[in-house]
Structure formats: C-alpha cells, structure tokens
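Reference record:
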Amino acid sequence: MATFEQIILMSLTETRKIALGFKAPKFSLLDVVRNEQRMLKDLKGERATVFMFICNHCPYVIHVREELVRLANAYRLKGISFIAISSNDVENHPQDGPELMREVAQEFNFPFPYLYDETQEVAKAYQAECTPDFMVFDSELKCVYRGRLDDSTPGNSIPVSGSDLRKVLNDILAGNKLSGEQFPSMGCNIKWKS
C-alpha cells in the first residue's frame, strides 16, 4: 500500500509559465452554495480578482484551505475579490461534486463563491493545470500573476503564510510595479474527463 507521501507525489503537477497580460475569459458557472449561475462581470473585484482552481479532496488544497479563507477575509474589503472554481471530473471523483463542494464551503465558511466547472471549459480557457492553481487579474481583468500561494507544501514543515500571493496583492493595493515573476504552483493535476 502506498504511503501518503507516495500518493501525493504520484499526482504532483506544476503550473507552467504562461505569458501574463491575457484577459480573463468570461464565464457563467454554478455557485454551489447559492445554487445559481454566476458570471465573471458580477464577481470581479474593483482593484483585483484572484482565481483559485481548487477541489475538495486534493491534499495540497486541504493544506492551504484555511489560509485561503484568511486571505479572502483580509482583502475582500479592499476591493479584491476571490473566486474558487472546481473543474474535476466528478464521475471518477465524486468527492468533488457540487453537493460535497457546498458542504466544504459551508463548513469552512468560504467568503468567496465556490463555482462548479462541469464542462471543464473554464479550466481550459484559463490554462489551469493543478489544484491549487492561482491567478491574479488586475482591475481591467488582465492577468498579472500566476503561481503559488507560498512555499509551503504538505510534508515540508514550512508554515502556510500565503506570502507570495499576499505580496502581489499588497503591491497592487500600493500601486507598485509588479515583478512578473512566476513561482509555479504545485498540487494534484486537474482530473480531466476522458
């Protein structure tokens, strides 16, 4: 039987660098808590919008989930919105289905919408590759950051701080020029449909 560390390494995927500056593709997805369709134009932040491709079962997401809630609570009143999207194939991974997504969102009191990307078209449009995968878009919905939350991963004993994402958001709020540096996020690969 595989150990926890072996299981994590089996599905480990890193984001690849992509050219920044691309415009956030429009979407309409099911908000599993409200049970209604939500559109990007209604969810975007005044100063910035953080996209988080996550899911329920990934150990990398579970490792950072509480920090995601802290981050959103810290920045949402400053004009930065957070959007969580789950794009996994729920036929083969039923633990990531809408009902269980709703339970997780309510259990952790998500201060952001948790959207279900049933067709996986949104994940493909955003070039998401793993969970968690983070992207930050400016007030004009142009991508200014794609990368990791911080350097903590399950098992490396580094505390979760959100330091990389916090730096980007603080620079946006301060009007500082962003470096454009991308540290790859890593986690479980998105479970694509066959």
Q: What stands out?
A: The longest helix spans residues 59-75. The radius of gyration is 16 Å.
